[in-house]
């Protein structure tokens, strides 16, 4: 879709947040030894996936040595490993791994984005940085015309998504939506079903807060809604 391509080009060239511009470059300059040979992306990340997607997955932001390194959302880190495997096992991806931009990983009926497009220090973007990025999410929601389900990974992703939805659907019943794992909302006046889930970060997966059966259950539920 030409409009999505043009949007993604604008996202990649964005420099609205000086703190994030500086930090993403600093991460690339001080990369760990295991990535010594990598030419880091170190730019804002556009969304990617199927332009005809019925599922939109919204994350927080690129990981320092994941998307900020590889140039693709949820690619090259532990969170990406969990997401790719779940998408493959539930029919939304063509393979169970997502390691780099040229690895052949393709989404089917799904699109991945984030509420912040540059890696933030300590994974904590400011409210102003979230707001600076929010128009991009608004545009994606406008351009992805077949969407039926929005899956928010983490409370920050939900907050940024609700901010965008309020701009598009000011009369929708979005009050009372709270974050929790595998919660489902069908607000009046909104053409989407909202589902919330813990983010598959190592902080959640390695501590047992997010177990595989609970994680894959989210995507099984998404499939049931789409059916």
Short recap of the structure:
39% of the residues lie in helices and 11% in strands. With 227 residues, it is α/β, with parallel strands linked by helices.
Describe this structure in words.
The protein has 227 residues and is α/β, with parallel strands linked by helices. It has one domain (2-226): Uracil-DNA glycosylase-like domain (Uracil-DNA Glycosylase, subunit E). Helices cover 39% and strands 11% of the residues. Strands 1-3-2-4-6-5 form a 6-stranded mixed sheet. Helix 1 (2-12) packs antiparallel against helix 5, helix 4 (78-89) crosses helix 8 and helix 5 (127-143) crosses helix 6. The chain is globular, with a radius of gyration of 16 Å. The model has no long low-confidence stretch (mean pLDDT 97).
User: How many angstroms separate the termini?
Assistant: 25 Å
Residues in β-strands, percent: 5-15%
Question: Into which percent range does the helicity of residues fall?
Answer: 25-40%
How many discrete domains? 1
SSE order = HHEEHHEHEHEEHH
Using the coordinates above, name the CATH class: Alpha Beta
Number of strands: 6
**Weakly predicted, low-confidence segments:** none
Tally of helical runs = 8
How is the biggest beta sheet arranged?
A: 6 strands, mixed
Spatial order of the strands forming the largest sheet: 1-3-2-4-6-5
Query: Helices and strands: which structural class?
Result: alpha/beta
Quick one: CATH superfamily? Uracil-DNA glycosylase-like domain
């Amino acid at each position: 879709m030409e409009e999505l391509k043009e949007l993604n080009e604008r996202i990649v060239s964005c420099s609205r947040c000086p703190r994030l511009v500086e930090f993403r470059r600093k991460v690339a300059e001080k990369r760990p030894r295991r990535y010594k040979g990598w030419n880091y992306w170190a730019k804002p990340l556009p969304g990617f996936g199927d332009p005809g997607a019925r599922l939109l997955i919204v994350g927080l932001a690129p990981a320092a040595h994941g998307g900020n390194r590889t140039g693709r959302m949820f690619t090259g880190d532990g969170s990406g490993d969990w997401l790719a495997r779940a998408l493959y096992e539930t029919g939304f991806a063509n393979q169970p791994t997502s390691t780099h931009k040229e690895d052949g990983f393709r989404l089917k009926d799904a699109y991945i984005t984030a509420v912040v497009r540059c890696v933030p220090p300590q994974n904590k973007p400011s409210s102003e940085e979230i707001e600076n990025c929010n128009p991009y999410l608004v545009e994606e929601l406008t351009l992805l015309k077949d969407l039926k389900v929005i899956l928010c990974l983490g409370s920050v992703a939900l907050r940024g998504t609700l901010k965008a939805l309020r701009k598009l659907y000011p009369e929708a019943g979005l009050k009372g939506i709270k974050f929790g794992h595998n919660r489902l909302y069908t607000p009046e006046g909104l053409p989407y079903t909202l589902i919330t889930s813990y983010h598959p970060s190592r902080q959640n997966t390695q501590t047992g807060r997010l177990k595989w059966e609970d994680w894959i259950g989210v995507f099984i539920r998404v499939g049931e809604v789409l059916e």
